[in-house]
Give the backbone structure.
Amino acid sequence: RVQYFTKEGPIATEHYRHPPLVIQKDDIDSNMSVEFRIFIKSETEYNIKNEKDEVIGTYEFGKEAKTPYGNFTITPAQINRKSWLKSNIIIVISPVNAIVDRYNSAIRVESANTNSNVIQLSLKDPSMEKATDIINNLIKQHTLDVINDKNQIAKNTLEFINERMTLINQELSE
């Protein structure tokens, strides 16, 4: 739902696995799209800027920020913390449904060849790491679903056999 970007010239780079900061405890409407900028002033303070690059407030890391976008707490990354000083971070918060719809339309599922049960999954995303993680999680979830289905079939089969054994046992003891 939350994406973190930095911009070098015209190109924005998403910091997917190692964001420079993290938004926590937000009460931003889950159906609302929001974009704003964070300027890291010091190790303890940051500015929030609107899309026109106007400062709308100065806040402390780790303390709740009451903003026009909603209330939230921002904590800085622990890794390379000083390297982010005086940086502008673009924050994009999107509704979960919009993200799901975007990835549903971006994921391609194709047959590897006509005589095979093998499928090929592909996903185009500006972040190769994110695309890889999404595909890997889909495969992992599919594997878990298959295991759960097989376990349910085995459980049902065992219940059926036990019921039949009980019935046969009763018939033989009569």
In short: The two ends are 66 Å apart (CA to CA). Residues 23 and 78 are 14 Å apart (CA to CA).
